[in-house]
C-alpha cells in the first residue's frame, strides 16, 4: 500500500524499526540524568564524560568484528543478542542506583582475615578497596555503557544489512532511510523519557522503564525477524572477526560519514549549549541546557523527516549521486547559517538545514553502499562505515571545543561548513574510481555488486 508516494515497508523491516526505536530509549535516557546525578553520587565531571562516551569508543573497536560476524553467521542471532545486551546494559543503570553505600561494607572487610604475603599486609583497608569499587555507582554505569557499546555495534551492523537484504534498487534508499530514522529517533525519545519520568517518578523508575522497552525490543526481534543474510553454511569461509572492508565503496561512504559526523556531533551538538550561553539565546526563558535540548530535538526531527525524503527520492532517480550532493550542499548552507546565527529564528533555521543535510544523505548513502557492495560483504561494509562515523563523532568534540576557546565560534562553524563539500568531493572521486562514472545507476537486479560493468551509467 502506498501513501504519499511511500510504500509500506515489509513486516520484517517494521520489526527492525520498532526494535531499534525501543532500544534507543536506553541510549538517550542516561544523558539528562547522569550529569546532575553525578554531583549527588560523588562522580567527578571527568568520570561522567568517560561514562557517557564509553559506548562510542567501545563501538569503535567492535564495529568491524560485528560486521564480519554478520557476513559469516547471519543477521538474526547478532541482532537479537545485540538488542538483549543493550537491554541488560540499561538494567545496569538501575543496579548502579540500588547498590549499597561503600561504607556499609566496611564490617564485611573487617571480618575478612588479615594476610601477610612477604612485606605486604592484606588487612581491612586492603579488602575494603575492591569492595568499594565493586559497589561504586560509577563502576556499574561504566560497565553498562561498555556493554551498550558492544550491543549497539551488533545492532547497527545487522539493521542496515537486513534492510539491504530485503530491498531492491527501487526501494533501497527508502528502507535505509526508515531504518536509520528508527535508530535515530529512539535516542531523543530516550532523552524525553529520562527527563520526564525521572522528574515525575524518580531516576530508578526512568531507568526501569527504559530497560523494559529495550528488553521488549529483543523479544520483538526474536519473534518477528528471521534470518535474511546467510542461507548457506559459511563456517568454512575465511571471514576473520577482525577483517575490515577496505573496498572503495565502503571507504568512500565511510569517509563521507566521518566528515558529516565530525561536524554534526563535534561542531553542533557538542558546542551548542556554549553557543547559546555566549550569545544569550533562549527559548521560553529556559537556561542554555534546556534551550539546547529543544534545538537538538528540532535538528533530529528535521533529520528524521529528510531521511525518508532523501531515500525515497534516490529510489526514483537513475542515480543516487545527485540527491546525495544536494543534501551535502544543504548541510554546507546550514553550517554557514550557524556561523552567522544570532537569534532564535536564525539558529532554528540553521538547525533545520543541518538536520536536513545530515538526514537527507543517510538513506541514499547507505543505499549507494548496498548498490556497490556484494551481498556477502554488506555486514563488513556497514562495519567500516560505522567505524569511520564513530571516529568522526569522537574526534569532533575533542577538536572543536578547544579551538572554539581559542578562536571563537564563527571560524569553527565556517570551517565545518567546508566538510560537507569535501565529503562531496570524496564521494565523486570514490564513485568514479569504482564505477567509471560520476553518476552510476542503481543496480537493476537489487543485488549489490562491486563490478563496475553491472552499474549502469545514467
Describe the structure in your own words:
The protein is mainly alpha-helical. It has helices at 11-29, 34-41, 45-73, 76-98, 106-111, 124-135, 137-165, 172-201, 203-224, 248-269, 272-279, 288-315, 321-340, 344-372, 378-407, 409-435; strands spanning 2-3, 6-7, 115-117, 120-122. The strands form 2 sheets. A two-stranded antiparallel ribbon has the order 1-2. It has a two-stranded antiparallel ribbon with strand order 3-4. A hairpin with a 2-residue loop joins strand 3 (115-117) and strand 4 (120-122). The chain starts with a strand and ends in a 23-residue tail after the last helix.
Could you give a short description of this structure?
The chain is mainly alpha-helical and 458 residues long. The protein has helices at residues 11-29, 34-41, 45-73, 76-98, 106-111, 124-135, 137-165, 172-201, 203-224, 248-269, 272-279, 288-315, 321-340, 344-372, 378-407, 409-435; strands spanning 2-3, 6-7, 115-117, 120-122. The protein has 16 helices and four strands.
List keywords for this structure.
disordered C terminus; single chain; about 75% helix; about 0% strand; two-stranded antiparallel ribbon; mainly alpha; about 450 residues
Amino acid at each position: 500500500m502506498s501513501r504519499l508516494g511511500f510504500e509500506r515497508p515489509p513486516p520484517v523491516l517494521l520489526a527492525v524499526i520498532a526494535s531499534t526505536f525501543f532500544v534507543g530509549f536506553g541510549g538517550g535516557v542516561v544523558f539528562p540524568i547522569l550529569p546532575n546525578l553525578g554531583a549527588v553520587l560523588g562522580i567527578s565531571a571527568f568520570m561522567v564524560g568517560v561514562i557517557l562516551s564509553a559506548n562510542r569508543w567501545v563501538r569503535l573497536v567492535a564495529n568491524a568484528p560485528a560486521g564480519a560476524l554478520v557476513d559469516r553467521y547471519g543477521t538474526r542471532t547478532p541482532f537479537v543478542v545485540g538488542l538483549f545486551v543493550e537491554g541488560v546494559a540499561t538494567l545496569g543503570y538501575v543496579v548502579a542506583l540500588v547498590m549499597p553505600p561503600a561504607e556499609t561494607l566496611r564490617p564485611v572487610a573487617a571480618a575478612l582475615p588479615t594476610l601477610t604475603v612477604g612485606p605486604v599486609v592484606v588487612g581491612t583497608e586492603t579488602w575494603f578497596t575492591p569492595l568499594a569499587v565493586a559497589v561504586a555507582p560509577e563502576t556499574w554505569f561504566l560497565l553498562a555503557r561498555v556493554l551498550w557499546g558492544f550491543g549497539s555495534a551488533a545492532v547497527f551492523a545487522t539493521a542496515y544489512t537486513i534492510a539491504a537484504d530485503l530491498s531492491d534498487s527501487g526501494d533501497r534508499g527508502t528502507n535505509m532511510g526508515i531504518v536509520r530514522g528508527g535508530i535515530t529517533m529512539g535516542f531523543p525519545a530516550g532523552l524525553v523519557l529520562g527527563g520526564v519520568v525521572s522528574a515525575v517518578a524518580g531516576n530508578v523508575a526512568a531507568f526501569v522503564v527504559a530497560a523494559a522497552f529495550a528488553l521488549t525490543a529483543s523479544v520483538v526481534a526474536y519473534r518477528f525477524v528471521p534470518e535474511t543474510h546467510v542461507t548457506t553454511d559459511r563456517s568454512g569461509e575465511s571471514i576473520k572477526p577482525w577483517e575490515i572492508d577496505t573496498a572503495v565503496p565502503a571507504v568512500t561512504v565511510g569517509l563521507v560519514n566521518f566528515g558529516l559526523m565530525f561536524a554534526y556531533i563535534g561542531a553542533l551538538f557538542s558546542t551548542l549549549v556554549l553557543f547559546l550561553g555566549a550569545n544569550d539565546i533562549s527559548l521560553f526563558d529556559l537556561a542554555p541546557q534546556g534551550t539546547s535540548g529543544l534545538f537538538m530535538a528540532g535538528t533530529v526531527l528535521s533529520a528524521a523527516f529528510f531521511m525518508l525524503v532523501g531515500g525515497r527520492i534516490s529510489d526514483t532517480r537513475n542515480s543516487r549521486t545527485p540527491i546525495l550532493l544536494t543534501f551535502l550542499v544543504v548541510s554546507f548552507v546550514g553550517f554557514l547559517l550557524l556561523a552567522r546565527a544570532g537569534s532564535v529564528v536564525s539558529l532554528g533555521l540553521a538547525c533545520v538545514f543541518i538536520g536536513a543535510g545530515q538526514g537527507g544523505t543517510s538513506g541514499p548513502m547507505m543505499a549507494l553502499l548496498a548498490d556497490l557492495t556484494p551481498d556477502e560483504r554488506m555486514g563488513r561494509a556497514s562495519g567500516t562505515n560505522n567505524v569511520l562515523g564513530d571516529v568522526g563523532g569522537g574526534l569532533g568534540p575533542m577538536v572543536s571545543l578547544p579551538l572554539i576557546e581559542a578562536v571563537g565560534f564563527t571560524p569553527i562553524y565556517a570551517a565545518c561548513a567546508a566538510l560537507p563539500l569535501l565529503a562531496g568531493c570524496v564521494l565523486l572521486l570514490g564513485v568514479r574510481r569504482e564505477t567509471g562514472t560520476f553518476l552510476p545507476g542503481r543496480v537493476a537486479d537489487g543485488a549489490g555488486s562491486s563490478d563496475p560493468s553491472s552499474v549502469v551509467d545514467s
